[in-house]
Fold this protein.
Amino acid sequence: METFVQVLIDGMLNGMVYALVAAGLCLIWGVMDVINFAHGEYLMVAMYVSYWLGFLLKVDPLLSVVAAGVFIFILGAVTYQLIIRYTIGRPGLVALLATFGLAVFLKNLCMNWFSPNFLILSDTWLGDKTLQLGNIIFPVPQLVAALLALVVIGLIYAMINTTRFGWAIQATALDRDAAELMGINTERIYLVIFGIGGACVGIAGGIMPSYLAVHPEVGSMFGLIAFVCVAMGGFGSIPGAFLAGLLVGSVEALAGFYIAPVFKYIAVFGLYLTVVFLRPKGIFGW
Amino acid sequence: MKHRSPRLKSWILFMAVIGMLLGFGPGAGSLLAAEKIIKIGTIFPLTGPVATAGQRCQAAVQTAVEIINNKHPEIKVPLAKQEGILNGYKIVLVHADSQGKADVGKAEAERLLNQEGVWALIGSYNSSVSKPASFVAERMKKIFMCGSSSSAALTQRDMKYFFRLAPTDATESVDFVEVLKWVNKKKKGSVKTIGVIYENSEFGKHAAEEAKKAAEAGGFKVITDVPFTPGATNLDSEVQTLKKANPDAVLGAVLGADYSLWVRTMKKANWKPRIIINYCSGYQDPVITKQLGADADFFMGSSGYSPQFASLMPAVAAVEKIFMTKTNGVPFDGNSIQEAVAMLVLAQAIEKAGSLDTEKVVKTLYENTWDSPLSLGGKVAFAKGGQNIKAQSIVTQLQRGEYRRIYPEKMADGKIVFPMKPWDKK
Amino acid sequence: MQHKGIHKKDAYWLGFIALLTMLPMVPAVTANSFHMHVVILILLFASMSQAWNIIGGYCGQVSFGHSVFFGIGAYGAGMAVVTYGGMPWPGILIGVVLAAVVAVVISYPCFKLSGHYFAIATFAIVEIFHRTFLVWDWVGGALGLDYPLVKEGLTNLMWYDTKTGYYYCALVLFLLIFGTVRWLEGHRFGYYMRAVREGQETAESLGVNSTVVKLAAIALSAALTALCGAFFAQYNLRVDTPMVMSLDMSMKFVLITVLGGSGTLVGPLLGAAVLIPLQEYTRAFWGGMGGGVDLIIFGLLIILMVVKQPAGMIGIFYAVRKRILKRNIAAKGESADGAP
């Protein structure tokens, strides 16, 4: 029983981080119908930002989160201006392939600049600390990352549902032309959405160096899982992505422990198929 | 409508650039053939998940070539004192990137041999790439020197032109079991059960199979077998599986970033077996102690080289100085140094054979025992199939960030810490 | 507009193929086996992408799952040779049939999904197959299958010293797959597929059973893809999962077709003719420098191509052709009809 709880908690903590990574993707996908294939690479870039701030300026990842978020916001906005803008209104594949090119570009650029070596920040505030409740171990860095995920996802959800800007986003997502007629500058909405989507993953990447090594390939698997979370949760639904992230994290951990570790991703992808075969539009899709 | 639209114009320009790429394709370099040079091709994974190792291997071969081509009286390595080989021939390297993929490695091997006209190949780190790439070389009757691929299958193919320097995972596994027996006897260790953790790739799978074979032959019981996906986002369930089975000893084949994740996840789960021994892998990466600090301590593994072996291998220091200028100060590790040895032994064989006739050089390679100050034990000799039978490795343990030689005892310079100290006691 | 005899468009194709048949007789190409390698890869990847084009382009179901079928074909050939020590042919046949069966079985539930849900589902299927094959010892697991040295020739479908044999095999593959698609274009089934792409409901209302059409299309597409996979295994003399059954491989099918122009006959060829040389020559030039310079450039060029010409290379092809036609027409002093 104790082991079960431990495995589940590890899984849920990872799941929260998946949810934060997925939330950014979800936002972009829901509003613009664009699949950003470079999402995992954004995460990798954010981790580098946080690592170098920590290594050169001795800033703790807990503080670098802000800088990483801002940096990826800008990266997202630039991506939109230079690439995505030209693919809006084209078949969905076009944006996907353009961002695939971007992913290859970013991954290898980082490898070229920072070498393929994996980098670890030692002596961070949170690094390697654990909380013990009975026999259950809570790793502090993952716990803080999960709380951060909760806060950020909550803020985004609140922004979309309660602010004027959020309503404008919703209007744009529903019908771009109608929103344009209502006087909403949809071009700017898109730009900001791409930025905010980036900022989410930037925040996730900002905190991660306190427990994970940074290297050019680090984002790939996170990116893939984020796709699954978003689609599982339902197209453009932030609560859906959050729930899916938790589910994916738990299933991954439980299947990995109770069946066999090599089956953990098979179980995750199997879970996605099961969910969409039962509910073709995802958990919260309509 | 005579004028062209700007978009079309830029496209025509773009296509022209591609056309130029095609037109002046590889092969243009062979114009230099008239000079006294020997072209040697290298194929390493310079990009992709194991690019770190691949780039270091490439730097090692470059280092060896620098020693061969120039006068280095301060270096006590064969061919260092003279300039070039065969009375003034210089070695020119042509590098290629396998991306860690078998099909790419094979295509690059063909290109290097056919288009670049290289005389021999050195590579390819990944066993899965070395296999098809050396197959190409064998068909063309060209020498393939393999430094660090460890799959035992490579030298069981009865190839004539294939030579491998590193010890195989089969011999390493036998060594590890010897260590466990030795610990049981010496320290009354009572190690009975073994767990195996490995990345699920050609390298890891092969190592694990050899480990299980050797363990059973040695009378140990393998109670858990944990393959994992390289590049996973976490290793929580893997470590929990190990923790639950709680074996006395763990044998690991874990590379690069996965290694640090594994160590930190074990720390997080607050679990350690009594002893951990690693295949040539993440454990012997020279940056690991810098990255993991005290957490890396008390792990064990086999190494063909580490900077702390200086007293055993005095010639390495001067060579390493050149190597470190190419790697931003990272010293040799057990893999990369084997690639340098591969290059040096090949050059020595050419010099001794006195010609560039491949058949003669192959014959010379087989017939002689080579002086190799960069190898542990100082000698290299090849058996049929191309395995270096003088290949040795020492089982080391990390203690306070230094690799202490533990086994075999006659080469030891430290005492084993057994069982490993728990995470909270340093 | 159906003419008796040969269509003008087909005449161009036949001429082009005749040229391709002669290619190995040009010493400048054959002497340089790397150029030959690139040409073979172009033919292979054009064929693969054309096979994808049947379901992805003509039928409008964007699948990222084709490396599963490709892998099944490759494993069929590989296991026949390596595991059972025989000729590859029976393995290829089994692989092709099996791929079609697997395609129908996994696609049946997936076709109920729309748009991105379908795309991600195919992603998931690739990952499931990839990881299952990696731990499945009967198919070689993580160790992969390495071909032994056997007699070269058509019986074993293996050549070592020259690539001419492989070249003609690739050409046959190319002819078969492009021929099939060309035939489909004019056949009733081709119209059904395009009807389904344009709108499932409309197609249904016209009496087209969209599920049957899609299943038939994916079965055909998968079988042809498996054939390409078998060739790929025979060409590289090794099969392992990361090589043949990965998302990377799946992306190539889509990338090439979309770059060339999806849903067109010539698109996959254009895409492969641009992307494959780009990939191979940038690697040959800059790969050895390390640091992934070739991939940085590769990534940038993909972005540039997609952004500048979202309709694919076919867009340029048409633009150029229109210009030439216009010039011809102008020279003849006739008025252009219908051209904007």
